[in-house]
Amino acid sequence: MATEVLAFVAGHPDGVRYSGVTSKFGDKAGRYLDGMRASGTVVRPKRGLYALAPGTTPPVEPQGVAARTVTTMLIQLSAALDDAVKQGLVTRNVARLVKRPDIAETEMQVWTREQSREFREHVREHRLYALFLLSLCGLRRSEIMGLCWSRIEGNTLHIRRGRVAIGKDVEEGDPKSWRSRRSLPLPADVVAALARFEVAQKAEALVLGASWSDERLVAVHEDGSPIRHEWYTDEFQRQAEAAGLPVIRLHDDRHTAATIRLDSGAAVSAVAKWLGHDPAVLLRVYGHVYDEALESAGTALFGDDTAASST
Predict the structure, then answer these.
(1) Burial grade of 283 (CB within 10 A; 0-12, 13-18, 19 or more)
(2) How confident is the model over 170-209, as pLDDT tens digits?
(3) 171 forms bridges with which residues in the sheet?
(4) pTM of the model
(5) How many CA atoms are closer than 13 Å to the CA of 129, on its beta-carbon side?
(6) In the prediction, which pLDDT does 308 show?
(7) What pLDDT sits at residue 279?
(8) Measured distance between the N- and C-terminal CA atoms of the chain, rounded to whole angstroms
(9) In whole angstroms, how far apart are CA 189 and each of 60, 251, 308?
């Protein structure tokens, strides 16, 4: 329904009336439209008129469940049926007869130090500058979206909760794993950016006549409403494009943070603890190397031989 409503709005560049949406999709569609306006994907240029927000990509035709999701579901179902076979509840695990789809591996991308610096400079005056810095530090999106002001004490950030988007709903709960529950000493520029963001939010709340609490989420819009996960990702990529940088996935910020730290000689155990990962997983998944480093490593293999042959 949400995709159809958004596509309908996108099909009317000059805007569409609220009544036009509800008459086509029913009264329930109005709630979706209100949610999209709150998330920033839809704007209201005039009273009662709704249009796609600038920079918002029109929805694509749904492609069904991803191959990775199907495989994960089959793994879980097979495990459950294995237990059922052992207990004598079923005679055969039929899930093992289902051929699992091939998963197309997505090449992860990272920014260089210079590109990361260019992005920081570009978004320095952006309202969400502090949140972008947290992403560049390697925090998960769910960790940033679930962060409350009470979890920031001086230069220490305590990750204790996460907010995950599931369709149009949001669920809040414990971090992804026990390793994800951690306390991080933040760089000075991140601490300063968060302090400025808190002052700005208190001023916004004062204008609206809203009360302030340290239990308030950090990732909120000017009106105090929580920032939607997908809107934050879209805004990050919009800013990357505007800065003339390669448009990477928001999650690739974690890969960038890991790569820069490892390339700087940081201990694997320290980088893994910072990201909330097992060291083995860090090396297998996040240990990217820049092209320049790869070239240097290749040259070093036969460096002495090359020098000897030239003399």
Answers:
(1) middle
(2) 777 777 677 889 999 999 999 999 999 999 999 999 998 9
(3) 164
(4) 0.65
(5) 20
(6) 46
(7) 82
(8) 73
(9) 39, 22, 48
pLDDT < 70 stretches in the chain? 58-65, 103-107, 166-168, 176, 285-311
CATH number for the domain whose boundaries are 113-286: 1.10.443.10
Residue extents of the structural domains in the chain = 2-52, 67-97, 113-286
CATH number given to 2-52: 1.10.10
Identify the pLDDT of residue 30.
81
Measured over the CA atoms of residue 217, residue 232, residue 289 and residue 292, the dihedral's sign is negative
Residue 213 half-sphere exposure toward CB, CA atoms < 13 A? 7
Q: How far apart are CA 221 and CA 228, in angstroms?
A: 9
Structure tokens at 228: 């939607």
Distance of CA 201 to the CA centre of its chain: 22
